[in-house]
Input
Amino acid sequence: MRALTIDAHGGLEQLRYRDDVAEPSLIDDTSVRVRIKAAALNHLDLFTIGGMPHVTIAPPWIVGADGSGIVESVGSGVRTVSPGDAVLINPGVSCRKCEYCLSGDNPLCLKYAILGEHRLGTLAEYVVVPEPNVARIALPASFDVPAAFPLATLTAWRMLVTRARVKEGDNVMIWGIGGGVALAALQIAKRLGARVWVTSGSPEKLERARALGADETLRHGPGIDIGREVRARTGKRGVDVVIDNVGQETFSQSLGALGRRGRLVTCGGTSGPRLEMDVRRLFWNQWTIMGSTMGSDQEFAAIVAEYEAGRLSAVVDSTFALADGRAAFERMAAGAQFGKIVVRID
Output
């Protein structure tokens, strides 16, 4: 089958389009084989290509976490989907038997694996996943949006709904509007009735975010203190929630923007993993600082319901053919996108 693969960790030069990769077979009677119609890129894919601690690959390794398509075959025990069904794919696979899974915290499972990182990914003609990792949807006119929807929306849903418990009237600040998680967070925060602040280094992205419902826009960049700007606009009160997936470069400014009893939720460290803070500000302001990764089966079901009802969607930046996958990755690496970059398999 055709696939976008790497044989070793490194830069984007490691990406290789191949048409001779072995097709995956059903693993057991609860497996589902999906013919991928479209896949979407995430920054996680860049980290996978570059290499991460304790993550090993076996060439040819298929990259990609997000995807949507048509069920091609199912194991004998599968009951929720049938061949011919259009499906969304949950990229996070867990054992569903341990204490964490049984308590509804699948991402804490000690065997948790993400497609493209720990298991063969979605940038291929076929992928095989456990039955709970697919959800039937109405047949779309195009698979671009459903391919772009799951990972970013699931991540943002857990951050805002489960972890930060955003409520109507909260002020929520989101770093780096234009990325998939940030755009999903904007939609979810507005759905919850929050007042939403977004940052970007691009005036054009800020303008587009306003068109999507952002209430306040903040230009970030060298010499700009976002925390100070937020406090100036709020009469020193600050915001209730900060959504930060940047890490090292933004953490102190995130705290500067955070008001008393504020909640900071982080799901990534694209600028670096090391953080510094004054613990006195933490206890004096009674902040809550939380980590968040992916989402549970229940949260996946929730975002699928929102998608099917037309209340949440995904912003698609651009589309590429599978053979042009490296160009798609180069666009993401440059940070030029506003929304998700989709790779069409068919």
In short: The chain has two domains: 3-149+314-344, 153-291. The longest helix spans residues 150-163. The radius of gyration is 20 Å.
